[in-house]
Amino acid sequence: TALVRFDDVGMRYDGGAEVLHGVSFSLAPGSYHFLTGPSGAGKSTLLRLLYLAQRPTAGQISLFGRDVRELGRADRARMRQRMGVVFQDFRLLPHLSVFDNVALPLRILKAPEAEIRRDVGELLAWVGLGEHEAASPATLSGGQQQRLAIARAVVVRPRLLLADEPTGNLDAEMGLKLMHLFEELNKLGTTIVIATHDTTLLARFRHPRLVLTEGRLKTMPPAPPPRGPV
Ligand code: ADP
Ligand code: ADP
To answer: Record's superkingdom (predicted)?
Structure first.
């Protein structure tokens, strides 16, 4: 059974035009999709619907096999705990240190503090933020904040990882390193949806595409491989 299912989903913001129309797709457990489409096509809106951060104005969404309309607030919160999200604006918690931002999802799940110390320490070192554990997120560069947001999203090994342009602020080498991290997570069973404009990444990692054009969604095969030496 599908991990995510959209049936004829529509979204209209208050007083605005319809941003998504008749969007239907499903994501098998363990699948990996890129979400593409021009700016303004509705990619962020689709990710927010997946994260239960907003309610669709038409159609039906099922997550983890349950119709989200039937969920209460506590159920929605529990589902969000099984998801990792990298928002375009990062949404780091400014009053918490770098370490505590990443530790928070583990603390919510009541992981033992020794395990938190170890896992968060390793992950921060791996994304190149080991020296910044005690810093405030506001003191980090844009690329460092993006790495921090990614570390926070993956630390619990979520069932579903959603990321909005997660490599947009990173140099090519760090971007590739994090794309390889997503590949590893996917091999361990995490279902992934990554919104990206980056045609190099699309051609290199070759996952099926959810393509949004003016609010309509088409599922397409992976982008063709790059020509010539990479
Ligand atoms: P993308 O991520 O593909 O750039 P978005 O989902 O951000 O697309 O936006 C799709 C459309 O919805 C745009 O026209 C945008 O202006 C509009 N939109 C997005 N968020 C809101 C909002 N909170 N209120 C009103 N309109 C919005
Ligand atoms: P609340 O808004 O009651 O504090 P949440 O924080 O769980 O509850 O909800 C965040 C957002 O999700 C709200 O804007 C709410 O409208 C939206 N939402 C509520 N119910 C659903 C649902 N069944 N599916 C998707 N989004 C929902």
So the answer is: Bacteria
pLDDT band at 118 (very low <50, low <70, confident <90, very high): very high
CA 180 / ligand 2 centre spacing (Å): 33
CA distances from 215 to 21, 56, 218 (A): 6, 13, 10
Instruction: Retrieve residue 209's tokens.
Output: 């595409």
Contacts of 188 (CB under 8 A, 6+ apart): 157
Q: Which residue owns the Cα nearest ligand 2 atom 14?
A: 54
- Whether 226 shows a pLDDT value over 90: the answer reads no
pTM of the model: 0.92
Compute the Cα dihedral for 110, 61, 153, 118 and give only its sign.
Answer: positive
Dist. CA 138–CA 149, nearest whole Å: 13
User: The complex's ipTM?
Assistant: 0.83
Mean pLDDT across the chain, nearest whole number? 95
Would you say the CB of residue 16 lies under 6 angstroms from ligand 1?
yes
Quickly count: other Cβ atoms within 10 Å of residue 42's Cβ. Answer: 24
